[in-house]
Design goal:
27% of the residues lie in helices and 34% in strands. Helix 1 crosses helix 3. The longest helix is centred in the N-terminal third of the chain and has 14 residues. The radius of gyration is 21 Å and the shape is elongated.
Length: 303
């Protein structure tokens, strides 16, 4: 198929062929287009590595069907224990006729976009940007802890001192930590970074402050503006697409150390089971645990 194509995420090549011209639309890839920005009926083919979350998955499938021309091909796949077992049912509910196969513990569904898909507006509304929580902050299904205050973030919030100067919030999510830092201290500039474009979009709606620069970026990668900082705050992730990855925390710690000036301070929170102390000792002059509550520990580390 030679017409316009798109791909969501990185489907294993052995399971689904993706044309080199396909436009990447995953929010977890900085620089990618947004699936929401695909024009109606503009694609001939779409390949989706479907998310595990029900609301998020139905949202991506609905956006894909919206963007496909009638009889355009949709290939949707997922591990059978992470949403794959429900793909056929969900696509059928959108009015699709589905051909399903199984390979390498994945379910692979191939269908053509119906001339009149069913329920797309409802699926996109249920998992689109929305206000949540008592403060009415913007968020979206798929964003980390999208509809509640993460308990680790809550512990870090309770242990935040007034901060000053230039700083960064790594893995900023919807901007809850950054909002508090801007409110509390004499902050001259705050960069907020997240690898999830949906989180970045929410943070931009939640933070109206000229001192804030909000970037869709991988915090582990060098950035020309993020050097010589006075402080870094973070609640480092340890999951990727729902799978635990204990390399993430140490990588965030190394990134924070690179960004800070000598004497700069990093405040971070972690699950008490995560052994970040050796990495803090390697990358910082000194560090100390300054708070512990509800299964989380807060460190202050000085560059």
């Amino acid at each position: 198929m030679s017409g316009p194509q798109a791909v969501y995420g990185f489907p294993p090549p052995i399971l689904a062929e993706v044309d080199a011209s396909a436009r990447q639309v995953s929010p977890l890839i900085p620089g990618a287009a947004a699936v929401e920005d695909l024009a109606d009926e503009s694609l001939d083919r779409m390949v989706v590595l479907a998310p595990a979350g029900v609301l998020e998955r139905r949202y991506v499938l609905a956006q894909s069907l919206r963007a496909l021309r009638a009889r355009g091909e949709l290939v949707a796949l997922a591990p059978k224990t992470r949403g794959g077992a429900r793909l056929n049912e969900e696509l059928t509910a959108f009015g699709c006729e589905v051909r399903e196969s199984a390979k390498r513990h994945h379910r692979i569904c191939v269908t053509e976009a119906p001339a009149t898909p069913l329920g797309l507006a409802e699926a996109t509304a249920a998992a689109g940007p929305q206000r949540v929580g008592p403060d009415g902050l913007w968020s979206q299904p798929g964003v980390f802890s999208w509809n509640r205050l993460d308990p680790g973030t809550a512990v870090l919030l309770s242990a935040l001192p007034p901060l000053s100067g230039r700083g960064a919030d790594l893995g900023c999510g919807s901007g809850i930590l950054g909002r508090e830092v801007l409110r509390l201290g004499a902050v001259s500039a705050l960069w907020l970074l997240d690898i999830d474009g949906r989180a970045v979009a929410a943070a931009r709606r939640n933070i109206d402050d000229e001192r804030a620069v909000i970037l869709h970026a991988d915090a582990r990668q060098p950035h020309p503006d993020l050097t010589g900082l006075d402080f870094v705050i973070m609640n480092p992730p340890f999951h990727v697409a729902g799978e635990e990855d204990r390399r993430l925390g140490p990588a965030f710690i190394e990134a924070a150390a690179r960004m800070l000036r000598r004497g700069g301070v990093c405040r971070l929170v972690a699950n008490v089971a995560l052994p970040y102390e050796p990495h803090l000792a390697t990358n910082f002059t000194r560090f100390a645990e300054v708070a512990r509550a509800n299964g989380f520990k807060v460190f202050e580390a000085v560059r």
